[in-house]
Design brief:
8% of the residues lie in helices and 28% in strands. With 115 residues, the chain is mainly beta.
Length: 115
């Protein structure tokens, strides 16, 4: 018997958000060599303003969390459009990728509470 595992669906990471879609913004992701799941923590690349996976050891700006990826995105050799949760929301801890203590503090500063 084959067992299939579903990935995190778009928006599944959200517990609650501000009225309408005020918690979300359109954003541009930097080129990525890996599939990024919904719930991936993102930082902003200082040089381009594009978003990339959060890396606490990076020196390019992605060492601070500035968004949570709303929906999964595939591999891309060029920047691609997506949606991020950037303010006033509650998110599910178990569905966040890359969460650490510093990342959680960054989220709280954005008004994003991890539950």
């Amino acid at each position: 018997m084959t067992i299939k595992t579903e990935s995190v669906h778009a928006g599944e990471v959200l517990l609650s958000e501000a009225n309408g879609t005020r918690s979300r913004e359109d954003l541009t992701l930097a080129a990525t060599a890996a599939v990024l799941p919904a719930g991936q923590l993102l930082g902003t690349v200082t040089a381009s303003g594009h978003y990339g996976p959060y890396d606490p050891d990076a020196l390019d700006g992605t060492n601070a969390v500035t968004a949570v990826l709303y929906a999964p995105v595939g591999i891309s050799a060029s920047p691609q459009r997506s949606v991020g949760i950037v303010r006033d929301a509650e998110v599910k801890r178990a569905l966040l990728s890359g969460l650490d203590t510093a990342g959680e503090a960054d989220l709280l500063a954005l008004g994003i509470v991890v539950r």
